[in-house]
């Protein structure tokens, strides 16, 4: 009995020594990885229409021609009407969801015949993308997701100028009263670009005609854009 107890005690001590001596990675849960996972890619199907080119389709979905070629094995880049193309869509858009983003890789989708203003600074609002672009000296300096007006309070389309700037104010109208709205820039009558704290649903129409942006984005625009800055709103 004493010998058996001695053997069991020795086994227990050996196990403890082994466990204590293991490196931390040896007892980590299997499959864990501290590196952030790359954005996952899913695909949607797009049917080629008459007049489509790879460039037009790429701009429509905010991807590159190379992305389309790679997803569809298009060596020569030839497409035809009725062809079904796989369009890669990144599912992780954390920056856009959190702050409205300033992702310069995004490009506006402009209507046919669009002519940019001949101005050093101007603001472009693309309602189809629900995105605002700040242009300076022919380049996109900043971009952010916004929320424009939803029916029946659509944001007006056209070319305007910032005619008033208000650091903070109370905004009210049918069914709402919002104190402490910050970084307000009026461009079309009572429609303004301003900071928003009452929702985080940027990328979708939410307002009574104004351009909702995060407070962070609205502050940047307020400090960057002087009185008279051109604001172009289009689909």
Give keywords.
L,D-transpeptidase catalytic domain-like, four-stranded mixed sheet, alpha+beta, 22% helix, 235 residues, Membrane-bound Lytic Murein Transglycosylase D, Chain A, 2 domains, 11 strands, five-stranded mixed sheet, 32% strand
Classification by helices and strands: alpha+beta
CATH architectural group of the largest domain: Beta Barrel
How is the biggest beta sheet arranged? 5 strands, mixed
Spatial extent as radius of gyration: 27 Å
- Backbone shape: elongated
**N-C termini distance:** 88 Å
- What percentage of residues falls in helices of 4 or more residues? 10-25%
What do you see in this structure?
The chain contains five helices and eleven strands. The protein is of the alpha+beta class. The protein has two domains: 52 residues, Membrane-bound Lytic Murein Transglycosylase D, Chain A; 130 residues, Beta Barrel (L,D-transpeptidase catalytic domain-like). The strands form three sheets. It has a five-stranded mixed sheet with strand order 5-4-3-11-6, with no helix packed on it. The radius of gyration is 27 Å and the shape is elongated. About 15% of the residues have low confidence.
């Amino acid at each position: 009995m004493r010998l058996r107890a001695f053997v069991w005690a020795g086994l227990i001590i050996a196990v403890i020594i082994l466990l204590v001596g293991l490196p931390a990675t040896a007892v980590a849960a299997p499959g864990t990885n501290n590196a952030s996972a790359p954005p996952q890619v899913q695909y949607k199907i797009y049917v080629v229409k008459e007049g489509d080119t790879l460039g037009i389709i790429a701009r429509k979905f905010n991807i590159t021609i190379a992305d389309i070629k790679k997803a569809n094995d298009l060596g020569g880049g030839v497409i035809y009407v009725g062809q079904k193309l796989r369009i890669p869509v990144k599912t992780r858009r954390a920056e856009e969801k959190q702050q409205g983003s300033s992702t310069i890789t995004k490009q506006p989708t402009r209507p046919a015949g669009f002519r940019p203003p001949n101005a050093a600074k101007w603001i472009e609002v693309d309602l189809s993308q629900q995105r605002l672009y700040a242009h300076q000296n022919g380049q996109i300096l900043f971009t952010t997701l916004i929320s424009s007006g939803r029916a029946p309070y659509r944001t007006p389309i056209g070319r305007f100028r910032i005619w008033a700037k208000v650091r903070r104010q109370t905004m009210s109208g049918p069914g709402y009263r919002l104190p402490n709205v910050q970084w307000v820039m009026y461009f079309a009558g009572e429609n303004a670009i301003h900071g928003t704290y009452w929702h985080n649903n940027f990328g979708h129409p939410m307002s009574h005609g104004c351009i909702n942006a995060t407070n962070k984005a609205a502050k940047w625009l307020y400090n960057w854009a002087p009185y008279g800055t051109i604001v172009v709103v289009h689909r």
